[in-house]
Amino acid sequence: MLFNRYIAALCIVYIVFFVIKTMINRRKGVHSEEKRKIREIVKRAVPYGETYMSAYGTESACESFVGNTLTRRHWYYAVAFKQGDLYLVPLSISRASGHQGALGHSDDYMSGTYRHRIQMPHEPVAGDMPSGINISYGEPLHFSVDNLGMVEAGKRMLTLFGKDRREILSFFVLPVYTKDGRCDPVNISQKEEAEAFSRFARTFMEEVNAANGIADIRKAKEEALMRQVK
Fold this sequence. Notes:
The chain is α+β, with helices and mostly antiparallel strands. The chain has helices at residues 2-30, 33-45, 191-211, 217-229, and strands spanning 53-66, 69-82, 85-95, 123-124, 133-137, 141-143, 150-154, 157-161, 167-172, 176-177, 188-189. Strand 4 and strand 5 (133-137) form a beta hairpin.
């Protein structure tokens, strides 16, 4: 009986500690160094980057499943957007030497490539972060009605398709990222940016799909799948 009370008390202490720590990280994220770095990267990597709204975006995908072990791969982006125009700047986020990475097996949070399409020169952003995290970035990917065949906007999520209607990538822009997350290497709170991105995503979807004659996204995806099968 006494042991059960002891365990219950420990659980309560842990929960209170976790909640307080998360709240502190969220407050830090509003004006965090990481958030400032994202804005700086957009200005440096994107043509006329100062005219775009910037945000931090993430993507994850199941890479392999062996036995009871599921391996997920994570990608991170500086997102720049304005009406009809979208840039994704791939990021490499790593801890300073001697620290373990978020994935538990590498100092790198991202390997430096998104499948086979993104080349990462690992150009460092000037200055290291106080938290011991370094951010490098690669060549920006530009998306517009000119090179997209279809777009699907979900809740805080955007999926891009090529002219052949095959999926290129799908990513999220969430209002809060904290280091308490299992694979989140940064503290970034971006409520206004996330809301603005959601509005942009819906408008962007309408513009791209109208230009490509897409009236039914589900039907268009099924037709693209049938063409691949043939």
